[in-house]
Amino acid sequence: MTSRFDDTIAAIATSPVSSGIGIIRISGPDAKNILRRLMPKLGVCLEPRTLYFGPFVHPNTSTTLDMGYGVWIPRPRSFTGEDTAELQAHGGTLNLQRLLEATLRAGCRHADPGEFTRRAFLNGKIDLSQAEAISDIINATSWPGLETAQSQHAGALRRTVENLRNDILRIVAHLEVNIDFVHEDIPLFSVQDIANRISEVRVAIRSLIDTFELGRILRNGLGIALAGRPNTGKSSLFNAILRDERSIVTDIAGTTRDYLEEKSDIGGIPVVLVDTAGIRETDDPVEKRGVERTHQRLRNADVILVLHDGSKPPEIDELTWSPATNPNHVVHVLNKQDLGIDPSWDNHFPTALRVSAATGVGIVELLHYLRNLAVGSSEQASHRTMITRSRHKEALMCCDEALTHALDAIGQCMPFEIISGELQLALDAIGEIVGISNTEDILDRIFSEFCLGK
């Protein structure tokens, strides 16, 4: 039976907008013949990696569709590791759609999302972490996020994982010597030496796990939700952080009845900022629904900025209310500093940040504070290898668990075979990061996130 990944595929590889150039990518065993059907004037002799200019014609009607360049790249020196071809035509949605339809008529099928990258992985051109990095490069919204994705695509995470796997493999090899040559005249490795080596690897694994929060933020953005009573200036602060009037601001309490979400960056750190409806008891069904949705957004936030009208004494519910969630950080912010902060706030939130969303006073300090929450120390923000996905963290935690079980087995004087078995589980777990051990459902989930043409 022929595998789905043994046929020839095609897709538009460039953004579907008006542009000077648009590219259609073809990959599979029939790529060269399809290029010839679309550009029949190429002739018999077709040199690889050479751009040929000419008309693109429909394979059934011979109608000229466009003028452009065609190139053929033979395997294995292509992105997918297969024979590939590209059509470089004029950009524009309609033009590329018509040319893609003709390409499919020439003898191939439309590629699934991420299928070109999946074929590159299956053919050994990249590992799984590098495949994920391609998606992250395309979707990066900040320079640090892009640099992290580029580093992962260049193999930084793969090299780190390979080094850790090799360390575990050496320990397994030492155990095998103790198991297989116990009665031979061969020096054996001490149990304490093996335990020390396992402990060293476990420290390195946990250090890599610790990079996840920053890596996740650089990839997905720091989720910041603005919460508080109506008319405390949440929408004004929302606009001040974005440096744009995105949220409607009025003196009428309850103006914001649903959340508003925008992406931005704070000192190069991507953020997802959410302006929520004011939290209060209400009989208005629309506003009540908005409050419910506010609580849903708060549960997903990394940081909650609880905004208060600092120009007035605190209300009782402001002192007793707390977010119905367990975020990493809840930050109290006293707004309307330009009107003067009521001194009674010092008795309740003495460390609260003070700003004026209307005049901009304190906004720079607030942004600096939020960036430090995301990045931490300058050492943590350095360009070391980071993990960026929950899948990476879960694999490393499984590896750490297996290493811990191996150390427990050593402490209980259990047979070397038991210890070796736990180390094999550790190898399998960490191998999932780069695709050494994987299942089809993992691959389906990863590559389904890609856009067409990649």
Structure description:
The chain is α/β, with parallel strands linked by helices and 454 residues long. About 3% of the residues have low confidence. The chain folds into 3 domains: 108 residues, Probable tRNA modification gtpase trme, domain 1 (Gyrase A, domain 2, 2-Layer Sandwich); 140 residues, tRNA modification GTPase MnmE domain 2 (Four Helix Bundle (Hemerythrin (Met), subunit A)), CATH 1.20.120.430; 157 residues, P-loop containing nucleotide triphosphate hydrolases (Rossmann fold). It has a 6-stranded mixed β-sheet with strand order 3-4-5-2-1-6, covered by helices on one side. A 6-stranded mixed β-sheet has the order 8-9-7-10-11-12, with helices on both faces. It is built from 15 helices and 12 strands. Helix 6 packs antiparallel against helix 7 and helix 7 runs antiparallel to helix 13. Helix 11 links the parallel strand 10 and strand 11. The two termini are 26 Å apart. The longest helix has 25 residues.
Q: Summarize the biggest pleated sheet.
A: 6 strands, mixed
Average pLDDT taken over every residue: 85
Structural class: alpha/beta
Helical content, roughly?
Answer: 40-55%
CATH domain class name of the largest domain: Alpha Beta
Q: Which labels suit this protein?
A:
454 residues, alpha/beta, Gyrase A, domain 2, six-stranded mixed sheet, flat
Short description:
The chain contains 15 helices and 12 strands. It has 454 residues and is α/β, with parallel strands linked by helices. The strands form 2 sheets. A 6-stranded mixed beta sheet has the order 3-4-5-2-1-6, with helices on one face. Strands 8-9-7-10-11-12 form a 6-stranded mixed beta sheet, sandwiched between helices.
